[in-house]
Write a structure and sequence with these properties.
Layout lengths: L6 E6 L11 E6 L2 E7 L2 E4 L2 E4 L2 E4 L6 H10 L5 E4 L3 H10 L6 E4 L9 H12 L7 E4 L6 H16 L4 H12 L3 E6 L3 H5 L5 H10 L2 E7 L2 E8 L2 H16 L4 E7 L3 H14 L2 E8 L2 H7 L3 E8 L1
Parallel strand pairs: 1-4, 1-8, 8-9, 13-14
Antiparallel strand pairs: 2-3, 3-4, 5-6, 5-7, 10-11, 10-15, 11-12, 13-15
Length: about 300
C-alpha cells in the first residue's frame, strides 16, 4: 500500500516500539545526531552519560549495548537527560517538505522534561519562515503506552488522516490506556535516585520483585512477587482485573531477554482477549533507570 501520509509524527526515544520498526541513518549536525527516522516517524534522542561520555539513545547506544555496559560495570551511575529544545527545533526543520504539518507527541510532561523542551522549540519555530505548522500534544504516556499511541497515529496518518482525526484518536486511546511492568530487582532504581537505599536493601533481603503500574501520569507499585514466573502471571492477571473480557491491543516489552518477552507474549495470548499483540524492547534510557531485567505490558481497549 502506497503511503499518502501528509502529517509527520515526532516523539523522543523514551518511546518503546515493536522490534519490526527499523530506522534510516540519523540526521547529523555539527557531528552530533539530531534524530532518527522511519517512514514518517522522527525520534529525538535522549542523552545517556556514561563515565563522562555522551551517548544518544538508539543512535550510538542500543538497548543491547546498554545491557553490556551494565553487566561489565554495575556500580556505574548512568545519567540520562531529555532532548534539548535545539534538538527538537532542528528535527522540526529536517522534516521533508512532502509533509504538510507536524504532530509532536513526546513523553508525558509529568514524567520528563522532554515536553517542555519541545514546547520551547515550538515557540522558537514560529519565528522561522517556511517551517511546517506544528501541533504539540502532551501524551500523558510513557515508554510502551506512548508507543501504542504512536503506532496508531502512524497507521491513521499513512492513510491520509487529518490532524483532527489524530488528536481525537489520542483522546480515545488515553481513556483505556495502561501499562504494568515487572522489575527483577530494585538495585538500579536505587542507583538512579528514585528510591532510598533502605527500600532497595529490604526488597533485596526479602527477595521482593515489584510490579509497577503507569496510569494517567502516575507510577505506583501495584503488586509484589518473588519469582519471574509469578511476575509474568501477575502482569496478565492485573490487566484482566482492570479490563475483564474487553478486546485489547497489547505491546509486550522486554529488556535483556527477548526469550522472556516471547514467553510473556504467549501468556498474553492465552490469558487475555487480544486484537493485536506486538513485541518490542525497552529503550536504553529506561534500562538505565530500571536495570536490564525488566518486562512490561502496555495496552488499550478497542
Amino acid at each position: 500500500m502506497v503511503s499518502i501520509q501528509k502529517i509527520a509524527i515526532i516523539s523522543d526515544t523514551s518511546i518503546a516500539l515493536p522490534d519490526h520498526i527499523s530506522y534510516e541513518k540519523p540526521f547529523i549536525k555539527n557531528g552530533k545526531p539530531v534524530c532518527i527516522h522511519s517512514q514518517g516517524l522522527f525520534l529525538v534522542p535522549n542523552t545517556i552519560n556514561i563515565n563522562g561520555k555522551e551517548y544518544y539513545d538508539q543512535i550510538n547506544i542500543s538497548t543491547g549495548k546498554m545491557v553490556e555496559f551494565m553487566n561489565k560495570c554495575p556500580k556505574t551511575n548512568y545519567l540520562t537527560s531529555a532532548p534539548s529544545p535545539s534538538r527538537f527545533l532542528e528535527t522540526f526543520m529536517r522534516v521533508p517538505k512532502r509533509y504538510t504539518s507536524i504532530l509532536c507527541i513526546p513523553l508525558s510532561s509529568k514524567l520528563s522534561a522532554s515536553y517542555s523542551a519541545a514546547q520551547m522549540a515550538v515557540n522558537e519555530a514560529k519565528n522561522i519562515p517556511g517551517i511546517h505548522e506544528i501541533t504539540l500534544v502532551d501524551s500523558q504516556a510513557a515508554t510502551g503506552s506512548l508507543g501504542l499511541i504512536v503506532l496508531k497515529l502512524l497507521e491513521i496518518a499513512r492513510q491520509g488522516g487529518s490532524i483532527t482525526h489524530l488528536l481525537n484518536t489520542i483522546k480515545e486511546i488515553n481513556l483505556s490506556l495502561g501499562m504494568f511492568g515487572y522489575l527483577d530487582g530494585m538495585y538500579y532504581v536505587w542507583r538512579s535516585g528514585r528510591i532510598p537505599k533502605f527500600a532497595y536493601m529490604a526488597s533485596s533481603i526479602l527477595g521482593i520483585k515489584p510490579i509497577f503500574r503507569i496510569f494517567q501520569n502516575n507510577i505506583s507499585i501495584a503488586s509484589k512477587v518473588r519469582t519471574k514466573k509469578r511476575g509474568m502471571e501477575r502482569l496478565t492477571s492485573l490487566i484482566r482485573n482492570e479490563v475483564g473480557e474487553s478486546e485489547l491491543n497489547v505491546l509486550v516489552l522486554y529488556g535483556k531477554s527477548r526469550i522472556d518477552g516471547l514467553k510473556l507474549a504467549d501468556l498474553v495470548r492465552d490469558r487475555l482477549n487480544t486484537r493485536s499483540v506486538e513485541l518490542g524492547q525497552f529503550n536504553a534510557t529506561t534500562i538505565a533507570h530500571s536495570g536490564p531485567n525488566i518486562l512490561g505490558l502496555a495496552y488499550y481497549e478497542g
